[in-house]
């Protein structure tokens, strides 16, 4: 009589728990042999549960300054003061210029930069990054303000910018606190390069009208239209052109002189660097003095010789909560994704780059907390969206910054400018600020040598790069971002879907010094010496660019080794398994050659020879029968339902092809416990017959064993429970390995999973042995 299954038993099986097994049982048989059990859903849920240590680590990560602030010293202080003050001389003119890109008054750029420098250090995992007003983000803010005011003309530009920063900051802060920093990895380098290049060209082109004092050019249009309209408006150029062009020339000339002198005098390289860094402040001071001399006493803007910045209010004149209501939320909602994307791209890309240069690792999630908190708090002092600045970060790094605390000293300098220098800013020529912007964004354009590297690495991605740049120029910067990320994602999916799998063959190799091989066309074993020969596996078709003279052999008649190119998933499973089927059928035969006695019994897709066609039965008979398939799972981290079912269907198909024999399936390099669980649930990997049916003269399936940790076999107590006995035959341990004092060896994987192997070589050895002995273990 069949045993009635309890509902609780079904529930236990759903969670991967054996109803007849106690949860506290050890993973050992009575004889002390190690066996494996698959992880359950309960194990997964337990792994997600927070622990006391995990909570403490989370809180510690939120305030990384606690890890270094108590070690602060005078040497660090000196380096931070120098770097902070140096950046301060750059950020003041840049901040005011970038605010004009956003369509705001100059003081908003100073507010934004002040808050970034004041707050970032407490949450930073990068000592080099500087947060504040930047050219690209300011341009995006300006475009968003223009778009919103087209449909909501009653909303002020300042209110739009501050609300945009606040809402974006909340989203980024949530991403950071939830530790979702990995999302930045979905943005490839080529997309970042195209975005920065397209943005730099768009910003530069948009500043030329102000540089030349042209009238009637709308720099919010598509870049190509701005360029066309600029050329048309050239006859309207004013005296501003003389100011702007000479300022731009002066910036590049000072940088060239300093670079040249630094190469000629390496001992004074640091001095020339600081002189070069101060070039923006120097140009601004010179042109303020000139503007004061020619425009002194002229209050009517129409009578001024050239356009000047005008009144910059002293101190924080726009303190207050940002506006957040249904009207502004509905207006800004379509613009939030673009804003967040730009904030992410600029900040994370810059911080990662300088982290690699200066030998430290940033925490992307914590960086999201930093820029999120900055953008949440900044609008209360009048700030608009802020993120990392490439030019200022490079200056800060070269100036010898020691810790993130350097931002405090920059904030002090910005504060000083806000309260003591605003009256001087009145005379800054607008054309000079445009020259500063063009000079700053010029460094964002990807250099030709980088493009050549892209081409050599991945020619397809250079097409994506130029597509993003062209879209940015002919439509908008925002569209350029989406195009490059979308195309990069499409290429990634295409490569996954078309990832090439390879059949592997065996070669015996030795190692030898390179000079022994060079020029020696007839290298022999005697030339190499007594180096140990070992077996490895390479692509049979030599698509891995191995030497065409290599003698690559089949692993064994009827045994096939297949390596997945980029994992196995629902996108590429059909392609991989079709490749397996077609190529295996080409070189093998059915176990029963005369299985179909009548022509009508044959399946339509295997009709046999045409009437009157002569078939070479000897050639077919000489082919091996299919005995085993070995899958290299070293690139497979997860097995989904679609690919698991595809493996099951292929196993059934091969079993019908090899009937009455059954095909063995071996798996090498399975490193994920959930992948192993999926395979076992699909009927793979496990020894289903154990010692009840064995090969004649065999001690069971072949498995790998390794050196045990010290303590001897008495280090655990086997529970008293009934268990199945599985015989094993140990793989010989390499002579280079040492054993414990008692010489004890243990299985690498559980003895109840003999078809999971450490590597391909071990899997082939087991499959070949079973193939030579007779019936399959998976009967």
UniProtKB/TrEMBL annotation:
The chain crosses the membrane at residues 69-92, 104-123, 129-148, 160-180, 186-212, 241-262, 274-294, 399-418, 454-474. It is a multi-pass membrane protein. Residues 557-684 form the STAS domain. PROSITE patterns: SLC26A, STAS. GO terms for molecular function: secondary active sulfate transmembrane transporter activity. This is Sulfate transporter family-domain-containing protein. NCBIfam families: sulP. One of its GO terms (cellular component) is membrane. It is found in: Membrane. Its main location: membrane. The keyword Metal-binding does not apply. It comes from the Eukaryota. Keywords: Membrane, Transmembrane, Transmembrane helix.
């Amino acid at each position: 009589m069949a045993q009635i299954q309890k509902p609780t038993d079904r529930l236990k099986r759903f969670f991967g728990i054996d109803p007849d097994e106690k949860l506290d049982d050890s993973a050992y048989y009575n004889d002390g042999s190690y066996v494996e059990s698959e992880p359950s859903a309960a194990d997964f849920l337990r792994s997600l549960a927070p622990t006391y240590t995990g909570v403490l680590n989370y809180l510690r990560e939120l305030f990384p300054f606690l890890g270094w602030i108590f070690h602060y010293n005078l040497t660090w202080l000196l380096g931070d003061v120098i770097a902070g003050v140096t950046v301060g001389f750059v950020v003041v003119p840049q901040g005011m210029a970038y605010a004009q890109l956003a369509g705001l008054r100059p003081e908003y750029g100073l507010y934004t930069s002040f808050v970034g420098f004041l707050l970032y250090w407490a949450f930073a995992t990068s000592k080099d990054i500087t947060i504040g007003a930047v050219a690209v983000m300011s341009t995006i803010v300006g475009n968003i303000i223009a778009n919103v005011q087209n449909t909501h003309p009653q909303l002020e530009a300042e209110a739009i910018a501050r609300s945009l920063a606040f809402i974006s900051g909340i989203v980024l802060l949530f991403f950071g606190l939830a530790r979702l920093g990995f999302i930045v990895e979905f943005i490839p380098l080529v997309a970042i390069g195209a975005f920065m290049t397209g943005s730099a060209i768009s910003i530069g082109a948009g500043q030329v009208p102000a540089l030349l004092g042209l009238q009637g050019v709308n720099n919010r249009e598509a870049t190509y239209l701005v360029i066309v309209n600029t050329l048309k408006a050239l006859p309207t150029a004013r005296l501003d052109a003389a100011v702007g062009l000479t300022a731009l020339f002066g910036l590049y000339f000072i940088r060239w002189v300093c670079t040249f002198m630094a190469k000629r005098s390496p001992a004074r390289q640091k001095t020339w660097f600081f002189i070069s860094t101060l070039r923006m402040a120097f140009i601004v001071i010179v042109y303020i003095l000139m503007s004061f001399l020619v425009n002194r006493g002229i209050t009517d803007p129409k009578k001024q010789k050239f356009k000047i910045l005008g009144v910059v209010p002293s101190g924080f004149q726009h303190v207050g909560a940002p506006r957040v209501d249904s009207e502004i939320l509905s207006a800004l909602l379509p613009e939030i994704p673009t804003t967040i994307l730009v904030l992410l791209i600029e900040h994370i890309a810059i911080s990662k780059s300088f982290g690699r240069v200066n030998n430290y690792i940033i925490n992307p999630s914590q960086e999201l907390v930093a820029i999120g908190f900055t953008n949440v708090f900044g609008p209360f002092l009048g700030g608009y969206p802020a993120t990392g600045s490439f030019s200022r970060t490079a200056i800060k790094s070269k100036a010898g910054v020691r810790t993130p605390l350097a931002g405090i000293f920059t904030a002090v300098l910005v504060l000083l400018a806000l309260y003591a220098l605003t009256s001087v800013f009145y005379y800054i020529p607008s054309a000079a600020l445009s020259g500063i912007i063009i000079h700053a964004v010029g460094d964002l354009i990807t250099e030709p040598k980088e493009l050549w590297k892209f081409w050599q690495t991945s020619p397809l991605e250079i097409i994506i790069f130029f597509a993003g740049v062209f879209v940015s120029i002919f439509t908008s910067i925002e569209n350029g971002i989406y195009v490059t990320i979308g195309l990069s994602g499409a290429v990634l999916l295409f490569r996954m879907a078309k990832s090439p799998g390879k059949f592997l063959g065996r070669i015996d190799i030795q190692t030898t010094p390179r000079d022994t091989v060079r020029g020696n066309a007839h290298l022999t074993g005697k030339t190499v010496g007594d180096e140990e020969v070992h077996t490895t596996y390479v692509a049979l078709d030599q698509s891995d660019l191995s030497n065409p003279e290599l003698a690559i052999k089949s692993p064994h008649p009827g045994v096939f080794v297949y390596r997945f190119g980029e994992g196995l998933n629902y996108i590429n499973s059909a392609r991989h398994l079709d490749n397996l089927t077609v190529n295996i059928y080409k070189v093998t035969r059915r176990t029963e050659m005369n299985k179909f006695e009548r022509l009508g019994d044959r399946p339509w897709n295997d009709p046999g020879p045409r009437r009157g066609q002569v078939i070479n039965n000897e050639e077919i008979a000489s082919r091996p029968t299919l005995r085993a398939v070995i899958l290299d799972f070293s690139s497979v981290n997860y097995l989904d339902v679609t690919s698991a079912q595809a493996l099951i269907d292929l196993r059934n198909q091969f079993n019908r092809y090899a009937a009455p024999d059954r095909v063995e399936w071996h798996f090498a390099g399975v490193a994920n416990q959930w992948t192993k669980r999926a395979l076992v649930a699909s009927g793979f990997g496990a020894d289903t017959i154990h010692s009840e049916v064995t090969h004649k003269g065999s001690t069971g399936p072949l498995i790998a064993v390794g050196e045990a940790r010290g303590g001897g076999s008495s280090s655990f107590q086997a529970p008293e429970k009934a268990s199945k006995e599985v015989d094993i035959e140990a793989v010989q341990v390499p002579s280079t390995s040492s054993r414990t004092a008692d010489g004890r060896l243990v299985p690498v994987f559980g003895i109840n999973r003999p078809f999971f192997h450490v590597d391909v070589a071990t899997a082939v050895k087991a499959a070949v042995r079973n193939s030579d002995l007779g019936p399959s273990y998976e009967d």
